[in-house]
Design a protein that fits this description.
This protein is an all-alpha fold and 422 residues long. The protein contains 15 helices and 2 strands. A two-stranded antiparallel ribbon has the order 1-2. A hairpin with a 2-residue loop joins strand 1 and strand 2. The chain is globular.
């Protein structure tokens, strides 16, 4: 089978696994009387990303090839997601918070490293074929977003947005990907020579990137922007669904099919991914990242101002700018890290990028957001009701501050071809 087709299948399944529950889990939790803990569940993605991608990346760099490690992660993760679904089925609205979040934590803990591993596997395979990753990878990565959209719409169409069945869909797809990953092109491992320092032996050399001022600043702002990454994933569905209790909006399409409306965000991703090679090569990582930060401002601001009735156009526009907000940060950042690091530590470096963004950043973001959401809203009959506009405006203001600081402090000169001149 053609290499690009094989990587397309990998990316499709990789994000289809996540799309089954990422945007709708909040509505399930609210329906299961766990609305006050939505932030805790999404924070676990960040907490586990603080150490799991880096640790698994070290193993992939030094002992187990990345494609096999990726398969192992998916098999473990999916097993726990299916266990979560079984427990939720047995207990309904009486599920114990500790057991639910415990099962989810192990499941997401082994899923998050698979994201950075999937990038490492794809980059390695493309480079072996002599292909430029900046040009060749984005069209392949598009199919990850398509996979995400497909499972979002499937969960919506089957009526699983508020039920445990979304985890069943994710688990089954994860098992398939786990076995498929084992068949992907072999990735190198780097055991090194006989004499190694403790840092080398543990595979922690990627942290030496912080010695470089440019890279250190890049990672710090990646962490700060990572705060925004999961906010709309956590609360967009419960927010839109909450309009069901307002007679004026109760029968609108968006209110009753939040996942379908939110899927426009991922549709925007498929287009914006194709723009990355153009903008990254001509503008450089600083301007591309700055565009992403400003897009987050509009993403949240439009949520605050819109509604699923006469203001639905603002929701739609928010979904459109999400493609720039997410791709120009997440995908461009990953490509930048790949280009800026040595081949011997690329899996570890991708893990470090994941740690700063989906780890520390997302954890701070979701825990902070939960406090804000709990202050402005309350759980009423399985829905989060309250002053959502203030919530979204606070998120927008934060993103604007980060954008201004990034423009001031991140220094990176480049040639139009993308080569650093300093």
């Amino acid at each position: 089978m053609n290499l690009k087709v094989r990587l397309i299948i990998m990316n499709f399944l990789q994000f289809a696994v996540w799309g089954a529950y990422l945007t709708s889990m909040g509505s399930y939790l609210a329906n299961a009387n766990q609305g006050a803990h939505i932030g805790a569940f999404y924070a676990m993605q960040g907490i586990t990303s603080i150490f799991m991608p880096a640790l698994i990346g070290i193993v992939a760099d030094r002992w187990i090839p990345a494609q096999k490690m990726m398969g192992i992660c998916h098999l473990i993760s999916s097993s726990f997601m299916l266990a979560l679904a079984y427990y939720a089925m047995q207990t309904g609205v009486h599920a114990n918070f500790g057991i639910l979040i415990g099962l989810f934590t192990v499941g997401i803990g082994f899923y998050m490293p698979s994201l950075s591993l999937s990038y490492a596997v794809a980059y390695n395979a493309l480079e072996k074929e002599g292909l430029d990753t900046i040009t060749a990878f984005p069209p392949i990565r598009i199919f990850g977003t398509i996979g995400f959209i497909c499972t979002m719409l499937l969960v919506d169409a089957l009526g699983y947005q508020t039920t445990y069945m979304q985890f069943v869909v994710s688990g089954v797809l994860g098992i398939l990907l786990g076995f498929y990953s084992m068949t992907l092109p072999e990735c190198p491992i780097n055991k090194g020579g006989e004499k190694k320092s403790l840092v080398d032996a543990l595979g922690l050399r990627a942290f030496s990137l912080f010695k470089d001022r440019t890279m250190a600043t890049f990672f710090i702002f990646s962490m700060l922007l990572g705060v925004a990454l999961q906010l709309s994933n956590s609360y967009a569905n419960p927010f839109i669904t909450s309009f069901q209790d307002i007679p004026e909006f109760a029968n609108t399409f968006g209110t009753n099919h939040a996942n379908a409306l939110i899927s426009l965000s991922q549709c925007s991703e498929t287009f914006c991914i194709l723009l990355i090679p153009y903008f990254l090569k001509r503008l450089g990582i600083k301007k591309v990242m700055l565009m992403a930060m400003l897009a987050w401002v509009f993403r949240f601001g439009l949520f605050g101002a819109g509604n699923p009735g006469t203001g639905v156009w603002m929701f739609i526009l928010s979904m459109i700018v999400y493609g720039v907000a997410f791709d120009f940060f997440n995908v461009s950042g990953s490509l930048f890290v790949n280009k800026a690091t040595d081949t011997s530590m690329r899996s570890s470096a991708q893990g470090l990028f994941m740690l700063m963004t989906n780890g520390i950043g997302a954890t701070l973001g979701t825990l902070g957001a939960q406090s804000i959401v709990n202050y402005y809203t309350e759980n009423v009959d399985g829905k989060m009701i309250g002053d959502w506009s203030s919530v979204w405006y606070i998120f927008a203001a934060y993103s604007l501050v980060i954008a201004i600081l990034f423009a001031i402090f991140f220094k990176y000169d480049f040639k139009p071809e993308g080569k650093k001149t300093t």
